[in-house]
Specification:
By secondary structure, the chain is α/β, with parallel strands linked by helices. Helix 2 packs antiparallel against helix 11 and helix 4 runs parallel beside helix 5. The longest helix is centred in the last third of the chain and has 19 residues.
Length: 426
């Protein structure tokens, strides 16, 4: 079979399932308002949660590093790529997180597929939540450890697996997401960490969507829930709330030493480029000096969840800036996504295999720089073919008296947000 035949066979099956994907083209700086496929929209689909990707201090730090160090590290960390900037970033990350050490990786995916096999292998046990991220799943596969999966958030089921593993030879690693990326809920970390410690398990927490967004100091869901000291390995990203690129693993000093020696995704990769490193360092400084960004982000998320709940629209189990509106069928979900985009709002439709079959959804993500008027505009957006919000008329009647949004009435009395007026918010 030729390459073309193989590709067509696979793509044909994907199209048949209704899960064919394509990449949209975005233009301009990542922010709450930008160009998507040539249209100016309000962006409710990003992970630049604190709007730091275009913060003046972050941009200037990156530009200065380009001038002083160039645009590439020039090699792997173990040969010629270990710059003083990398060491400085890792020291600052460890101070920020309250750990003994940190080590930078190219991406969050690379961190998980490098760290997990460094901690467990054949003859060991890895215990994983059913909704853990794909990078955790792939890291578990690469480790060759025995993998046991418990139902999402089920503390009793987890405790039973930990108890079973404690009677068996080998190490046990419990891997959890801090914020689950498709549902926006938090792992019940307190009882889970307590159970893991009681049974002698190592705890790894992936804080990709929690770093910078939760906790008194922005250290993530473990800080938010008071269990930071119980986390053995903390994985985080530099490319979401921190507005740069890359990832890190943090923990005791010996963890860093171990990963430098055995984590293949670290050893056999070029180091992060200087502009990315310095952007991350600047973002950490902004995170400390402007905590209001984190507060505004969670305030916006509560506002959206509460407004939807007023009209009987469930966003359960979200507790964070990731707000799902489950529609169910793939085709209907993508029609809603496209109709919203036509009206000036980009909220991505998410389908299987990213979420279980029958739970396709709009995945709405908030930013600290979103205005309540923009959130209200998303709520009142109306198009004639799909009524994506149950009880729409109730929403409209309520919002009509509390916003200054311009509305246009068509002959069939369909109400929708006037895109010309929308540009005034952009």
């Amino acid at each position: 079979m030729s390459l073309e035949e193989r590709a067509e066979e696979a793509l044909g099956a994907i199209r048949e399932r209704g899960t064919y994907r394509r990449m949209r083209v975005l233009s301009g700086a990542q922010s709450a308002r930008m160009q998507v496929d040539g249209r100016t929209v309000s962006l409710f689909a990003g992970s630049n949660y604190l709007d730091l990707a275009h913060h003046p201090e972050v941009v200037e730090a990156s530009a200065r590093a380009s001038r002083d160090y160039g645009c590439a590290s020039g090699g792997s960390r173990l040969i010629n790529g270990n710059l003083d900037l990398h060491e400085a970033l890792e020291e600052e990350l460890s101070r920020f997180l309250g750990t003994e050490s940190a080590l930078a990786f190219g991406t969050g995916y690379m961190a998980n597929v490098g760290v997990i096999p460094a901690l467990v292998g054949r003859g060991d046990t890895l215990i994983s939540d059913a909704l853990n991220h794909a990078s955790i799943i792939d890291g578990a596969r690469l480790s060759q450890a025995t993998v046991r999966v418990f139902p999402h958030g089920d503390i009793d089921a987890l405790d039973a697996l930990l108890a079973q593993s404690a009677t068996e030879p080998g190490r046990t690693l419990l891997v959890l997401d801090g914020v689950y990326s498709m549902d926006g809920d938090l792992a019940p970390l307190a009882p889970m960490v307590k159970s893991a410690k009681r049974h002698g398990a190592i705890v790894l927490l992936d804080a990709a969507h929690a770093t910078g967004t939760l906790g008194a100091n922005g250290r993530g869901s473990a800080e938010h829930l008071g269990v930071l000291s119980g986390i053995d390995v903390l994985i985080g990203t530099l490319g979401k709330s921190l507005g740069s690129f890359g990832a890190f693993a943090a923990g005791p000093a010996i963890l860093r030493d171990l990963l430098v020696n055995v984590a293949r995704s670290f050893i056999f990769s070029c180091a992060l480029a200087p502009p990315q490193v310095e952007a991350s360092r600047a973002a950490l400084r902004v995170l400390a000096s402007e905590p209001e960004r984190r507060w505004r982000l969670q305030s916006n998320a509560r506002y959206l969840r509460n407004r939807l709940a007023e009209f009987g629209i469930s966003t359960e189990p979200s507790q964070t800036q990731i707000v799902p509106v489950v529609i169910g069928e793939n085709e209907a979900t993508m029609k809603v996504c496209e109709a919203l985009l036509d009206r000036g709002f980009y909220a991505q439709g998410i389908r299987y295999p990213s979420v279980p079959l029958g739970t396709a959804r709009l995945r709405i993500t908030l930013m600290s720089s979103h205005e309540e008027a923009e959130i209200d505009a998303l709520l009142v957006c109306r198009f004639p073919d799909i009524n994506w919000l149950t009880g729409y008329e109730m929403i409209w009647n309520h919002l009509r008296n509390s916003t200054n949004l311009l509305i246009q009435a068509e002959s069939d009395d369909t109400l929708f947000f006037d895109c010309a007026a929308h540009t005034s918010l952009i």
